[in-house]
Amino acid sequence: MKSFLKYTLATIVGVMIAGFVMLIFSIGIVSTLVSMGEKPVSVKEQSVLVLKLDHEIIERGNKNPFNDLDFPGFSGAKQTGLDDILACIEKAKTDSNIEGIYLNPSMIMAGMGTVEEIRNALIDFKESGKFIYAYGEALSQKAYYLVSVADQVVMNPLGMVELKGLSAQRMFYKNALEKVGIEMQVIRHGKFKAAVEPYLLEKMSPENRLQTEKYIGSLWAQMLEDIAVTRGVDVAKLNELADGVTTFRGADYLLENGLVDTLKYKDQVIADLKELTGTAEKDDVNAIDVKAYAKVPASTDGKGLARNKIAVIYATGGIDMPGSGSDGIDSEELSRTIREARRDSAVKAIVLRINSPGGSAYGSEVIWREVKLASEVKPVIASMGDVAASGGYYIAAAADTILADRTTITGSIGIFGVIPNINELLNDKLGITQDVVNTNEHSDILSLTRPMSSFERELMQNYIEKGYGIFTGRVAEGRNMTVEAVDKVGEGRVWAAGDAMEIGLVDGFGGITEAVELAVELAGVERYRVQSLPEIKDPFEEWLKEMSGTAKMWFVKQELGELYPVYQRLQEVKQTRGVLARMPYDIQID
């Protein structure tokens, strides 16, 4: 027995030592990767900037050195920031080492607003007189929309281009939920508020179908108009080609109809790039991608760091949505960031960059308040990306000016609450019953194990109506409209940016670049620097925190044993920061 305990103890100590050694080894690897990611990059003469855009495009590059790692047991997120892409295109305009841009996308993982902003940046780049050369083997509709701006669009002889029009498809869960015994009880204001329709219907409501037809029609018309201008093919012809679907018709068909300029293999494309860059036939083309070029310092005026700042504050993802993690908007954190920018005397104007479908009504109100306070002391420009709808529009409403991409989806001024009833699932499907004792008449209000009473439904409807009234009031105040006028374009209806501008929800078209330019103009500053907020957390520090947090939880779990689930539940309640008390019944504006 003594030998058994000795060997067991030795094994435990060995495992602990091995774990410690592995931790130190991991830290060493991470430190090396971080230092490698921080090494300066130089650009060779006669280089070409390569835009493959084969990673997911997010609003803001996170500078995480793990993103591009790909080896057994570990795979990076494979993301590229729109801010990095736009900055690289702008920098390449005046970089004497960059001869032009080589576009080689396929499937672009980004929304239409994002693609439009990259496309507009490329149009601006052409003013430098440098070339844009595009080559495709299989171009999605978004990819073709982007490359259509190039001086030359070259297609592989066996390549294809997708041109078929836009389609909006919805899935409905009503019948599936009924089969498992779940009833989704919905209270809403807004006949166009389609977010809850999958729980209630088997197909789109007439109102939802109407708004969907309207906004995808507007997006498609905008895409075709842009392609028609750069390719010299009229809109009617493009629609005719889309009706016939170009995808499987062969590269010769694309050439005949003016969608591409020529058909070439990759070796011929490389020869073209050598000629365009003045590279000798025996040498390789000097190429640099966005990830590397983003690390090349931009040229300066030699006058040192400008004191005046334009703060670009990013609001990306769902607002206080459970499970969003770092990919969503934390209303407390974002409102604190806006507040700090308001109090910073060096910040002369704020650009609030929004790419959000909405979320918590309370969280939206918290952010709105800070935007409102900021707009009272300095210019605030709201810049809408792919989508700024519902709560995303709510937080934009207090800005002095709202700019949107022409392909932005916005509006959706409405509010709803969802309370599931899982009584049938528990009783009939699982055999679980429940009994209740109340001290007061409605102590078990909005129980998940029974249908809502008429009292509860009326109470919740009044709560929703009050929330809708606050929402429309905020929009009316910010947009100089009457509440009645807001309600007329509200009711949860979604709008494409072009229509949104006609009805007064948007002031003008433009992306993040135009928003910053407008902020500079309104602030009346000449020398300035752009400060992106919130500050990006150091990935190494975050990794260490995660490691230490994991170790801490392991010891707590060992100490508490079977009481650990109770501790875990208390932590979850604590982390809500009182959200249950403020917005207890899943009131959403998305």
CATH topology of the largest domain: 2-enoyl-CoA Hydratase, Chain A, domain 1
The parts where pLDDT drops under 50 for at least 5 residues are 572-587
Instruction: Return the domain count.
Output: 2
**Name given to the CATH homologous superfamily of the largest domain:** 2-enoyl-CoA Hydratase, Chain A, domain 1
Can you tell me the CATH class of the largest domain? Answer: Alpha Beta
β-sheet strand percentage: 15-25%
First-to-last CA distance: 64 Å
GO cellular component, one term: membrane
InterPro entries: ClpP/crotonase-like_dom_sf, Pept_S49_pIV, Pept_S49_SppA, Peptidase_S49, S49_SppA_67K_type_N, S49_SppA_C
GO biological process, one term: signal peptide processing
Keywords: Hydrolase, Membrane, Protease, Serine protease, Transmembrane, Transmembrane helix
Descriptive terms for the model:
globular; membrane; alpha/beta; 18% strand; 21 strands; Pept_S49_pIV; 2-enoyl-CoA Hydratase, Chain A, domain 1
Please, could you describe this protein's structure?
It is found in: Membrane. This is Protease-4. Keywords: Hydrolase, Membrane, Protease, Serine protease, Transmembrane, Transmembrane helix. Helix content is 45%, strand content 18%. With 590 residues, the chain is of the alpha/beta class. The protein starts with a helix and ends with a strand. The protein has two domains: 169 residues, 2-enoyl-CoA Hydratase, Chain A, domain 1 (Alpha-Beta Complex); 303 residues, 2-enoyl-CoA Hydratase, Chain A, domain 1 (Alpha-Beta Complex). The longest helix has 36 residues. The protein is globular and about 85 Å long. The chain is built from 22 helices and 21 strands. The strands form five sheets. Strands 12, 13, 14, 15, 16, 18, 19 and 20 form an eight-stranded mixed β-sheet that branches. Strands 10-8-7-6-1-11 form a six-stranded parallel β-sheet, sandwiched between helices.
